[in-house]
Amino acid sequence: MPVGEILISEKEIQRRVEVLGREIGDAIPPGDLHVITTLKGALFFAVDLIRALGREVTLGFITASSYGSSTESSGEVQLHQEDIGEFAGCHLLVVDDIIDTGRTLLAVTEALRTHNPVSIRTAVLIAKPARREAAIDADYVGFTIDDIFIIGYGLDYDEKYRPLPDIRAFSP
Ligand code: PRP
Predict the structure, then answer these.
(1) pTM of the predicted protein model
(2) Per CATH, is 3-66+77-170 categorized as 3.40.50.2020?
(3) Relative to the CA of 162, which ligand 1 atom is closest?
(4) What is the predicted pLDDT for the residue at 145?
């Protein structure tokens, strides 16, 4: 495993996700709740967040990718929607690990909106407002950080380092 400066410790992440999960679970009105996890980066965050919601949910998955083997976005968001599930008439929570340019979250929410959920909310662990290009903000944010490339807790560099329990600064 690589080293890199730990920006957010495992303990900080766990505490914040627990609080955020409860907040979201309480804020979404009663009714069916469907949670769609944006793969692959949000995998670890989603597991912890969904458990902290404290309510019954159904689950779906969407795969979004726009980053190649570099730290820069290619700009195009590719979506694979085979496993999004059925959520017409449900509240929808979309979970992603990070909002950077915002292109992914925008593409994902626009695509999912066409399936007629009652409401759509978005939750991300990390926001990097300095990099925003698309006109979108996440409804729920775990941590706001400066423009630093990070790895861990789902976030990768060239598909590596996702299983790290903490979030670290990384320069290739
Ligand atoms: C990462 C991350 C977000 C997106 C954020 O996904 O998981 O989905 O980039 O960047 P943006 O706000 O600039 O669109 P990536 O495309 O690297 O795929 P991954 O989830 O498989 O790592």
Answers:
(1) 0.94
(2) yes
(3) 22
(4) 97
